[in-house]
Fold this sequence. Notes:
The complex is a heterodimer. Chain A is α/β, with parallel strands linked by helices. Helices cover 44% and strands 13% of the residues of chain A. Chain A is built from 47 helices and 22 strands. In chain A, β4 (118-122), α5 and β5 (152-156) form a beta-alpha-beta unit. Helices cover 31% and strands 29% of the residues of chain B. Chain B has helices spanning 13-21, 47-51, 60-66, 77-90, 120-133, 146-155, 167-172, 183-191, 198-201, 205-212, 214-224, 253-274, 306-317, 341-348, 352-368, and strands at residues 5-10, 30-36, 39-45, 71-74, 97-101, 105-109, 138-143, 241-250, 276-287, 292-303, 326-338, 376-378, 388-390, 411-422, 432-435, 438-451, 463-470, 475-481, 490-496. In chain B, β5 and β6 form a beta hairpin. In chain B, α6 crosses α11 (214-224) and α12 runs antiparallel to α13 (306-317). Chains A and B meet through α7, α39, α44 and α47 of A and α3, α5, α7, α8 and α10 of B.
Amino acid sequence: MNYIELQVTTNFSFLRGASHPEEMVEAAAALGYSTIAITDHNTLAGIVRAHAAAKQCGVRIIPACRLDIIDGPSLLAYPTDQAAYATLSALLSLGNLRTEKGKCELYKADVYQHSEGIIFVTVPAGKLGKDFDLDPGFKQAVKEYNQFLKDLYIGACFSYKGDDGKRLYCTAEFAEEIGTVMVATNDVHFHHPQRRELQDIVTCVREKCTIYNAGYLLYQNAERYLKSAKEMERLFRKYPDAIVRSRQIADACTFSLDMLKYEYPEEITSEGRTPQEELTYLAWKGAKEIFGEVLPEKITAAINYELRFIEEMNYAAYFLTVYDIVRFARDQKILCQGRGSAANSTVCYCLGITSVDPTKFDLLFERFISSARNEPPDIDVDFEHERREEVMQYIYNKYGRDRAAIVATVTQLHQKGAVRDVAKAMGLSTDAIDRLSKSIWEFTDEWFEGKVISDHGFNPNDPHLIKILDLTRQFMGFPRQLGQHTGGFVITRGKLTDLCPILNARMENRTNIEWNKDDIDALGFLKIDVLALGMLTCIRKAFDLAKDHYGLDLTLARINEKEDPKVYEMISHADTLGVFQIESRAQMSMLPRLRPQCFYDLVIEVAIVRPGPIQGDMVHPYLRRRNGEEPVEYPSKELEDILKRTLGVPLFQEQAMKIAIVAAGFTPAEADELRRSMATFKAKGLVSKHRQKLIDGMVAKGYKIEYAERVFKQLEGFGSYGFPESHAASFALLVYVSCWLKCYYPDVFAAALLNSMPMGFYQPAQIVIDAKKHGVEVRPADVNLSLWNNRLEEQQGKYKAMRLGFRQISGIREEDMNILIEKRQMPYRSISSLREAGVPMVALEKLADADAFRSMGLDRRKALWEVAALTDRPIGLFEGKEIKHTEEQNIELPEMSLSEHVVQDYGSTSLSLKAHPVSFIRRELFNRQVLSARELSLWPDGTPLKVAGLVLVRQRPGTAGGVCFITIEDETGIVNLVVFEKLFTRYRREILYSKLLMVEGKLQREGEVTHVIVKHCYNLSGLLQQLGPGDESPDVLTLSRADENSGEVFQATNKKTQVRKVIQTELFPEGRNFK
Amino acid sequence: MGRRYLTIWFRHLATDQLAIRRPELKAKAYLLAAAERGRMLVKACSSAANAKGIASGMVLADARALLPEVQVFEEDPLRTEKLLRALAEWSVRYTPVAAIDMPDGLILDISGCTHLWGGEKPYLTEILTRLRSAGYDVRGAIADTIGSSWAISRFGTITPIIAAGTHREALLQLPPAALRLPIPILDRLQKLGLYRVSSFIDMPRTALRRRFGQELLDRMDQAIGMAAERIQPVIPVVPYQERLPSLEPIRTAPGIEIALRKLLEALCSRMYREGKGLRKARFTGHRIDGKIEDIEIGTNQPVRNIEHLFKLFQLKVSTIRPALGIELFILEALVVEDLSVQQESLWIANNHQHTAIAGLLDRVALRFGAGTIHRYLPDQHHWPERSLREAGSLKEQPAIQWPEEQPRPVFLLPRPEPIKVTSPIPDYPPMLFIYRGEIHKTRKADGPERIEREWWIEAGMIRDYYQVEDEKGQRFWLFRSGRYEDHEPEWFLHGFFA
Lengths: 1075, 498
């Protein structure tokens, strides 16, 4: 068999190809092809997948590309060797980088310069012209190509458009005329003719039309599928040379992606040391800096052991690369913390990559890196979110854009997107598309069998709809665009373009490669994750504040040096609002039960309140065992080693995988595959295959079948949401640091937290209330006293007082406030002086709204009155002069009540230091027998009661079986509500739309944890209206009663009250909703 | 007596309109939504939806979360405006000066009209009752100025009729929004604690102008009546209809023709003034015995040429049976289209051929029925039967060029006819075929051109088309239906080349 398919467009030519690269390769293998080329349009993004699939089914792919050239006909490019591949990749990078993301701008001159070692084939000409010859323009261009390109062939395909005989003849003639040869291709767009329908749909999506008006944009037949070599030979029976030529081209292309060798960058070593020597040197140096000249024996042993392991696996360069980035961050005073499988090693501690102290934390290194799995070590480094860009730019600058780039993520079409696209192309109306995409999950097997009719009235007997759903199923999982990974960098020794084309990311100053994480893994490249973490920003700001105000020199490691019982005491009381990770409602209710005493307890705390352990039902067994209510036992000795630290209950991802390996006889690679298969596809077939294997394996080893079932269930939970111990440990460190700050310096912590917003679960109001509760005086923002950030002022009681910054005022711009602060040599004494200083009107108005003129003796209303008048200012000669308007002297503005002030405070800063809104309606609440949050503690478990408050957070975690958790707040504190699913459905409107929610329910107390189990909900938001101006009813205008009897009396609902209601309640922040 | 104004506020205009059109919606929760800045916003909602907490301005997704069963319709502001205009035209029966007040109100100048209904109160009751019984939720108010009647209609709580000269007092207790002010000014007044008109109406005007701009003063003045405000009255559109009553009953054809000509003259001169031409017209005769005789004509393009129209009618005049005589003639233009003046000149000047064809076609169509004339235009389909479609009118231009890339027969059979062939397999042209008993030997052939079914329209077999020339030089368009591999092939003849 001689024919090799050389022109294959996969779905990585977005919205052109209609088959996955894997499908193409598998189809080629099934047809008996030994080799197939992949030629996507201006991209190599799909070739790694094709390559991986090809290896599996024993065929070879030629990584190639179709070059769509702006000033000439398209060319197919086949690199013959690795050098040529690098050239091709460089050519694509050139085209990518000179334009925006998603495009590639190539000119024929570029191709001429990058043609060494590449075989070119012209894309077959479409139609013959009127004079039954090829288009003269095309011929001219190809003639020119032939002059400049060494290896050029003329492509031809049999398209069944009626003129194939003539066209092939003309093409062959023309090839002969310019002294080259014709080669056969089939311009494959899908692997099977049935995919034509999807290809038509994809064309419609691309051209933004529907199948009904696409017309000639569609192909008239389905011939662009992968045909058998025999059929191709028949079609080209008159031109056997064209067939032979395809094989010759394929034979000339010897390059395979396996030849790509990843090499670590080399500028990471100093003084001529090898990477291993450098790492050894740095590790010991760091160890001595930390532990002193005499190292603890355990440390020495650990370092020796780890270094040997690293040498064996040849990972030194990787550690050094990470170290280099971390060192830069430290020099720039950017806080960072490593996590991941290799991050919590002693070596990493000595290098400063992590601050988790290995002496206190007995983690075995190889637990994290298993040599058997031979997977590259994984270190993710978190940086302050506000400054991560600096780190990224450092990497780009140090290694250059041609050597460092961010990994891509291939955005795949999900069901919703797919059904939208297909339905649109099939001509459904926007409304129908909306309904369809919302109800897509309704289309169950039962629906297809016609047994159920969907809620939205979609009929299973409608063939049009069935077709849409069928196409949707095929379309799902298609790549749609290349995105940017959150922070995965690939850094190479040589040029990155030797490996893969680079392209511009959508964000400024970022460049990507075309391949994603899995592609990188498949080729064995190393990537380093440079991630952003808000809490690090907060901690760094707290460190700065602590230095300025308390003269402390804090670091992550220093705080972690000793374990402070006072901090753990605070944590055990769930006094953790605002700290890292353990601030959520679920975490807070867990803390008093778990009562963490040491660092490892925090690690467990971080990992246990996760969907994985919750779904796997591991939380309660663990709690019972910890509290001694249940004996700690192990199903076998071998599992005791794995589960000892967590009292026999698997809590971490690593443990789950170890169980699969030890107890069920999985190989490490299989265990990993198991995890992945459950994380990514929930494809039934694959998971149940693993399930059988796991259970059989465990039963064979003598475990009870029930236990095996449970382990599988746990694994299932882990698959999607499991938390690895290695990550939990790094997080726990930050948990501890943030708790320590909150415990000892609540002023510093609150200011730093507010200055790092938005982050975490809570609104500024809660953070401020919490700080006040801890004895911090909080002062309002003021034009003469505030900075942009929240700042600390002089000592007031136990802590420094906190002055709110301008950043808390909504809608105000930092630039404007910088002008204000810059010009503030002396306190401002009038509003017009602020205007003179250059603060814009809008900003002044916002400042007035925020009541920030108190230091001038103006309340917000007076200030606003003044500000509003500034629109006409004295100009010219009178500039800067204060103007007196005598007639304005007598104007009296209505006095503002405290409650009105609070309402406006909320409107402007989302918090009020004056009072809590609920306090104003306490009397009404009292009349309704509503208890305050504080009073709850006076009542025993099981008391029926009523509480009310502003809704802070509503949560409906997927793991809780439809239960909704609500947190409400009144002037005395917060109350946690639990709403079961049935009630949620009944009170859905009250729950979702109340700002002030009153509930009737039963008190539930378990140790320190108090909940109210809700029975009834009431929306009391209307009461908040009373906080506004006193509603003196306008009954002055009394006309005769007769008018009212005329049958034209106005109805009670009138728009005035409606209007005001809206204005009033919108000032209060919406509670946050979490899934 | 000074002027008096009535303002009517349709509180749920868009939703009421929907409920009137679709009575099954009555009392149901439904809403109208439109896309705004990338999300769907609720634009209007029924009172049932409102009672469940849905309000306009909400994000549609929120509304759906609140009330999953709520029915959603797309908002059509143009339709609402049209409706408002129609309502204004309707209210012309109560006053000659009726104006629309976008987006949801009417303003009527009722000065001197109300006594016909026995005073303002019955007048108002009459109008509002009529509107309410039609299904609209309305409020109305009468006052001395447009501004104050607007304010009372929206915000008034006591009485809808403000006696002459008392509108200023009536305004005092209303919120500033009653003055038709933009949101930013309202926000600022709210923040300053000026919750009622009374709290600022007496402030020094300069102080107000500095802070709120001229607009506040203008609106205040308009409401109080210190500044004039005009409304733009709607004038109802008159249908294209001409009437000719006859002094004595007409019974003869010439008489009828004279009447027809007179009416045509009147109608055409009006259409000329308005730049229109007719496509369809009806000529009706009301007989003295109470029966009605009518004839209708249609044209291929808009026409207002009296001669041409007369000729068309003339062909049918004989069908009118005058019996004892006709006392009233009415000529109506049923379908009217824009016809620019330039085209009119074409009738007179050079482009005679085109108009002659048009005239001929009109007459042929009238005589033999419109179904006898066909004109085809290309349509964007690969499937041959669908690659052309019938043109709607003479003027219609093809949206695309006739495709020239592929050979297509001059004469395409409406239905392919089966033939018997001898042909090699799998996809070669036939060596000979029998069509209607005659054997054609293939001398030359080209193909195949494979055309697949348009799967979104129908399922079925593919076709492989061949151009075939026999010994006589006749050329045919043949196809084989279905792939050879799948089943016994069937062959058809589908067209003839020139």
